[in-house]
Amino acid sequence: MQIYLPIAEVSVNAFLLLGLGGIVGILSGMFGVGGGFLMTPLLFFIGIPPAVAVATEANQIVASSFSGVLAHFKRRTVDLRMGLVLLVGGLIGAALGVQLFTMLREMGQVDLLVKLCYVVFLGIIGGLMFLESLRAIRRSKNPTTVPERKKHGLVHALPFKMKFRTSGLYISVIPPIVVGLFVGILAAIMGVGGGFIMVPAMIYILGMPTKVVIGTSLFQIIFVTAFTTLLHATTNYTVDMALAVLLLIGGVVGAQIGTRIGVKLKAEQLRILLSIMVLAVCAKLALDLLIEPSELYSIGTGGH
Amino acid sequence: MLRLTAALLCLLALPLAAEEVVADLSKDEVAITANFDGSDILIYGAVKRDAPAAAGPMEVIITVSGPKQPVNVRKKDWRFGIWVNASSVEVDEAPSFYAVASSGALREVLSRTEDLRHRISIPRAIRSVGAPSSVVNAADFTDALIRIRTRKNLYQQLDNAVNLFDETLFSTTIDLPANLVEGPYDTRIFLVRDGVVVDEYETVIKVNKVGLERWIYDLAHEQPLIYGLLSLFIAIVAGWGASAVFRYIRF
């Protein structure tokens, strides 16, 4: 069944969108990630204009994060205070990101920026995660080697310290604001929640305990992506409600199925699978930039 | 103006046998609904004559043109080891959709001067004047525009697609693809003899989003803040609903 998307002005198969939403939902449920980093490139591949894909995906992430954060509130694994500090940075970052996005859209370089961001960040995160999980698997085979841990880093030396009781931390507010800012910019440019950057940053830079990391990141992501959606809707008019609803239905159902599959797999196996997937998406996008395209020309509308 | 020239030409070329096109469409309105999947439009008509047909072969050319928009054609180049958009040419007027159907091969049916005057063939329907001087081969950009849109079925050159019976009745079907832009679609029918246009008939097909599509599009452009808030509201409700439903199922 074809459906005409009112904002994207393209006609696509509704079942394809439901299916994409479902598959990405399953993966996000399995791995506990938002799935934006997979969905947005997939939307590019099926021919949704990048600007619409990025803005609409932000709207869809609001739904999946909201669904996820409710479960975390119940388990009391959300550090509200840390979430709010991250949010301050996140909102500023999102505003900057949308500005940058609009500017580059006019210059015709937005596709390049979005793709470069994807290649760089997916490459780094995927690579690190792959190596880390390989090491974890090796470690579980001969448990004699104990991993070293650095405590006291830069986060303890900076001023404006604050107590984060849920996380059991007493650190400066500057690093969380900077992390939030950075993820906010990326969220606006890449159409992702930024969980795949936020989660490692919270663990490795801020030193937060793993159990509160996902809930807190989801809490913060809801507000940043909601803000991004509003900014895209009012400045670029690129949020497609029909597209968002279709992706949402598939995604929400898929996430629940994915959670059940995820329970049956081991943590290291999950992480290595996720990293392989991230690297595959990264490789596909990188090849597009490196190999000479068969069509050198492209058409952009506008010229205001 | 065009009509006037056509009428004058009629008088000059064929003072005895004035020929006139009478035509109609199977529908003059296309509604883009949520499940819009393209539309076929039958264009048919006849040639009205006061006197017996003049000598020389008669041909019919039918064009359908979507709203004209300025577009930017960009070219990728190898820079810093990757392929990036490097140069661009702005085409002032490019129809979002253009189909030209003719009863014979267009190149043989129509003379070059008449094509220039009436802007009938695809390259003539596009107007590009503002190529920056830094771009040497501006023609490559318009060629690329035609190539890309032809591949998407947005530009169609349909030779021998007009059925002509007894130099009097004609008909053709134009296939409007699913990815249409809304607006007025100018439809022109040309009667051609010896490569010269002897009569022209113009009408408009209205392509509009209707119902939900119309509502969403208008809201997004006229009340963007409300539209954004509504999108968020739907997202929140869906997210909450999904978690509530699945919690209920689990027990």
UniProtKB/TrEMBL annotation, chain A:
It is found in: Cell membrane; Membrane. Keywords: Cell membrane, Membrane, Transmembrane, Transmembrane helix. The chain crosses the membrane at residues 12-31, 37-59, 80-100, 112-131, 173-206, 212-231, 243-263. This is Probable membrane transporter protein. It is a multi-pass membrane protein. Belongs to the 4-toluene sulfonate uptake permease (TSUP) (TC 2.A.102) family. GO terms for cellular component: plasma membrane.
TrEMBL record, chain B:
Residues 1-18 form the signal peptide. It comes from Litoreibacter albidus. The keyword Signal applies. Keywords: Membrane, Signal, Transmembrane, Transmembrane helix. The chain crosses the membrane at residues 225-249. The lineage of its organism: Bacteria, Pseudomonadati, Pseudomonadota, Alphaproteobacteria, Rhodobacterales. Pfam families: Alph_Pro_TM. This is Transmembrane protein (Alph_Pro_TM). It comes from the Bacteria.
